[in-house]
UniProtKB/TrEMBL annotation, chain A:
Protein name per its UniProtKB record: ABC transporter permease
UniProt superkingdom: Bacteria
Gene source species: Mesorhizobium tamadayense
PROSITE patterns on file: ABC_TM1 (PS50928)
Subcellular location: Cell membrane
Residue ranges constituting the ABC transmembrane type-1 domain according to the UniProt record: 65-272
From TrEMBL, chain B:
Protein name, UniProt field: Spermidine/putrescine ABC transporter substrate-binding protein
Signal peptide: 1-38
Keyword Signal on entry: yes
Biological processes, Gene Ontology terms: polyamine transport
Keywords per UniProt: Periplasm, Signal, Transport
Places the protein is found: Periplasm
One Gene Ontology cellular component: periplasmic space
The keyword Thylakoid appears for this protein: no
Length: 281, 364
C-alpha cells in the first residue's frame, strides 16, 4: 500500500523533472544571473540602480520602448484584421480536401530563413525595387517612394510573418467550433452578421488572443526585422539592448533593459490570461 | 583598493552573479568540449579572417586546423573570452585602439618584436600609443583603412566629395547613408567642425551632436556593414558617411563606379590588430599564425578577403597591380598624412558618446 502510494506520488514528479530541470537550467538560472547583472555597475562592479534609472530618465531610451510598443500594436492589429478573414475563408469556404494544401501554402513563408525573408522585403521595397517600379510603370508616381528603411517596412516584414501565425491559431479555433452553434443561432432568428458578431467571434476569441499574444511576444523581442528593414531610423528595444553589448560590452545595462522588456511582456501575458480566464484551468 | 573593487569575492552580488554565470555557461561549454584538438589553433576573429583563401595555405603548411569564431565589437569579443576557460583561445583580432583593454584584463601576451616585420609596416599604422603598454607590445596592426566618404561617382560630383560640408548641405539630402558605428562617425563629425579626433573631450559633445543631427537629417538610413554596403551598391543611396575602401574595393569589379575620397578636412583611420592570448596552450603556433598573417602573402590575402577589403599594414604585401590600384596603394602616403586616429575615449566619455549616438538615431 505505502510503496504503491509512494510510487503514485513519485511518478508525476519523475515525469515533469526533465522539463523542470530544463526550465531551471536554461531559464531560471540565466534569468537570475541577468537580474543580478542588471543591478551591478558596469565600471568597478558593486550594487547600483543606475542601469534602471538610465532607462527612465533618458528620453532616447524610453523612446525605444514607445517605438517597440507602437510597432508591436500596429503589427498585431493589422495581422488580426488580415488573418481572421483568411482563416475564415480557409475553414468555411475551402473544401475540406483542399484545406491541407491551402494551409501548407499559407505557412510557406515559415519555410524560408528569417534573415533571407527580411532582406527579400528590402529588395522589394527598395527605391528601385518591385513596388516602386510597378507604381512608376503604371504612372502612379513620378519619384520613387521611400518604403525601405522605414517603420512601414518593419511593419510590413512583421505582418507578412505574423499573419500566417495568426491564421493557424484562428483556423484551429474555427475548425473546433461546432456547426450546431450557428444552427441554434439561426433557429433563434439571428442573421449571418448577428451570428458572427454574437456567436462565432466570441467563441473564436481564444484563438485570436493566443495568436495575438504570440505575435506580441515575438514582435516586441525581435531584433532582425527592424535592424534590416527599419534602417536604424528609429530604435526599438532589442536594438537598444544589442547596442550596449557591441563595443562597450555593457552587459549590466543590457540586462536591465532586457528585464524591463520582459516585464512588459509579463504584463501583456497577465492581461491576456486574465481576459481569457486561462487561470481557471 | 582597485583590485578589491574588481574582485568578485569582495562583493556578494558579484560573487553570486559570477557563480550563476559560470553555471549558465557550463552547459554550452560541456557541449563544445572535445571539439578542438590540442594541435588546433583557436582564433577569435572578424569576418575577413574566415576566408578559406586566407586560412587554407597556413593550415596546409603547418598541418594545423584553425578554428575560428567571428564576433563584432570589442565588448562582444571580450565577453566571449570572459565566458571561456583560460587557454581556450590562442589569438584575437581586435580594434587597435582596444588592445589596451585586453591588456588591462590581463589577457594578452607581449609579442616578440624581433620575430615580426615591424620595419615593413607603414609607420603611421603601428599605433604604439594603443598597442604598447609599459614598454611591451601586445598587438600588431594587420590591416587598416579609412572611415571617410564612400560614394557612387556617376551619381555625385566627385569634387563635392572633397569636403565634409557636402554631407550636411541640401544637395544630397536623402541620398546619404550613415555607417552605424559611433566612434568613426563621431570622428568624422569632429573633423567637420575642425576638432582633432585625439583631443575630443566632453565639452565637445554639444557641437558634435549638432553636427551628427545635421547628418541624420540628410540621411536615408543608418546601417551596419552589410546594410550600408547594400544601400550603396544597389543605388538606394549615393553616399556613405563612414565608408571607404572597405566598402568600395571589394565591389570594384561589379560596380566600378563606387569610390571613396579623403576630404580636405581629413578622414578617420581605422586599424585592426592581432594579439596573442597569455594563456594560449599553443603559443608557438599562435606566433606562426601572426607571422603568416603579417607576411607579404598573408597580407595580400587578408587585404582582399571576401568579407571586406582593406589596406595591408605591411607595405610589402604581395598584391597584384590591379589590387593595388583598387586599394589606391600608391596614394597611401598622402592619405595617411591627412588621416586622424580613431577617437579613443575613456570609459566615461565612451558611454556619453554612445548615448549621444542613440539620441541621434532616435531623432526624427
Amino acid at each position: 500500500m505505502s510503496v504503491s502510494g509512494s510510487n503514485s506520488r513519485a511518478l508525476p514528479w519523475a515525469l515533469v523533472t526533465p522539463a523542470l530541470a530544463w526550465t531551471l537550467l536554461f531559464f531560471v538560472l540565466p534569468f537570475i544571473a541577468m537580474g543580478l547583472s542588471s543591478l551591478t555597475a558596469h565600471e568597478g562592479g558593486g550594487f547600483t540602480l543606475a542601469n534602471y534609472s538610465q532607462f527612465f530618465t533618458d528620453p532616447s531610451y524610453w523612446r525605444a520602448m514607445v517605438n517597440s510598443l507602437e510597432v508591436t500594436a500596429t503589427v498585431t492589429v493589422i495581422s488580426i484584421l488580415l488573418a481572421y478573414p483568411f482563416a475564415w475563408i480557409l475553414a468555411e469556404q475551402v473544401p475540406e480536401r483542399w484545406q491541407r494544401l491551402a494551409l501548407m501554402l499559407a505557412v510557406l513563408p515559415f519555410w524560408t530563413s528569417y534573415v533571407v525573408r527580411s532582406y527579400s522585403w528590402l529588395l522589394v521595397l527598395a527605391q528601385n525595387g518591385v513596388v516602386n517600379r510597378a507604381l512608376s510603370g503604371i504612372g502612379l508616381i513620378a519619384e520613387p517612394l521611400q518604403l525601405a528603411n522605414t517603420r512601414f517596412a518593419t511593419v510590413t516584414g512583421f505582418v507578412h510573418f505574423f499573419v500566417m501565425l495568426l491564421t493557424l491559431t484562428i483556423f484551429a479555433n474555427l475548425k473546433q467550433l461546432s456547426p450546431s452553434y450557428r444552427k441554434a443561432a439561426a433557429d433563434l432568428g439571428a442573421g449571418p452578421v448577428r451570428t458572427f458578431l454574437h456567436v462565432v467571434l466570441p467563441l473564436t476569441l481564444p484563438g485570436i488572443m493566443v495568436g495575438a499574444f504570440l505575435t506580441f511576444v515575438l514582435c516586441i523581442g525581435d531584433y532582425i526585422t527592424p535592424q534590416i528593414l527599419g534602417g536604424n531610423n528609429e530604435l526599438v528595444m532589442p536594438q537598444l539592448v544589442m547596442m550596449q553589448i557591441g563595443r562597450r560590452g555593457d552587459f549590466p545595462l543590457a540586462s536591465a533593459l532586457s528585464i524591463i522588456l520582459m516585464a512588459v511582456v509579463t504584463i501583456a501575458y497577465l492581461a491576456c490570461a486574465r481576459w481569457l480566464k486561462i487561470e481557471r484551468a | 583598493m582597485t583590485v578589491n573593487a574588481q574582485n568578485p569575492l569582495s562583493n556578494p552580488l558579484s560573487a553570486l552573479k559570477s557563480c550563476l554565470a559560470a553555471a549558465c555557461a557550463a552547459a554550452p561549454l560541456l557541449l563544445t568540449a572535445g571539439g578542438a584538438q590540442a594541435a588546433d589553433l583557436n582564433a577569435l576573429i572578424w569576418c575577413d579572417h574566415s576566408d578559406p583563401a586566407l586560412l587554407q595555405p597556413f593550415e596546409e603548411a603547418n598541418n594545423v586546423k584553425v578554428n575560428v569564431k567571428e564576433f563584432e565589437g570589442t565588448g562582444a569579443g571580450l565577453a566571449i573570452v570572459d565566458q571561456s576557460q583560460p587557454g581556450d583561445w590562442d589569438v584575437m583580432v581586435i580594434d587597435s585602439i582596444d588592445v589596451s583593454r585586453g591588456v588591462e584584463k590581463g589577457l594578452f601576451e607581449p609579442l616578440p618584436e624581433d620575430k615580426l616585420p615591424f620595419a615593413d609596416l607603414f609607420p603611421e599604422v603601428k599605433m604604439d600609443k594603443s598597442t604598447v603598454v609599459d614598454g611591451k607590445r601586445y598587438g600588431i596592426t594587420e590591416k587598416f583603412g579609412y572611415n571617410t566618404i564612400g560614394f557612387n561617382k556617376t551619381k555625385v560630383d566627385p569634387v563635392d566629395m572633397q569636403s565634409l560640408a557636402s554631407l550636411t548641405g541640401d544637395k544630397y539630402k536623402g541620398k546619404i547613408a550613415i555607417y552605424d558605428y559611433y566612434l568613426p562617425v563621431i570622428g568624422m563629425a569632429a573633423l567637420a567642425i575642425g576638432k582633432k579626433t585625439a583631443d575630443l573631450t566632453e565639452a565637445d559633445l554639444p557641437a558634435l551632436k549638432t553636427e551628427l543631427l545635421k547628418m541624420k537629417a540628410n540621411a536615408k538610413l543608418v546601417g551596419e556593414v552589410t546594410a550600408s554596403q547594400t544601400a550603396l551598391a544597389t543605388g538606394e543611396v549615393d553616399i556613405l558617411v563612414g565608408g571607404g575602401e572597405w566598402v568600395t574595393a571589394g565591389l570594384a569589379k561589379e560596380n566600378p563606379a563606387l569610390d571613396f575620397s579623403i576630404p580636405k578636412e581629413g578622414a578617420v583611420l581605422w586599424s585592426q590588430s592581432l594579439a596573442m592570448f597569455k594563456d594560449s596552450k599553443n603559443k608557438d603556433m599562435a606566433l606562426k599564425f601572426i607571422q603568416y598573417i603579417l607576411s607579404p602573402e598573408g597580407q595580400a590575402r587578408l587585404a582582399t578577403s571576401s568579407c571586406y577589403w582593406g589596406m595591408p599594414a605591411n607595405s610589402k604585401a604581395a598584391l597584384t597591380d590591379e589590387q593595388k590600384k583598387i586599394l589606391r596603394f600608391d596614394e597611401q602616403p598622402g592619405f595617411l598624412a591627412r588621416a586622424q586616429t580613431y577617437p579613443a575615449p575613456n570609459a566615461d566619455l565612451d558611454k556619453k558618446m554612445q548615448d549621444m549616438w542613440t539620441e541621434m538615431l532616435q531623432a526624427q
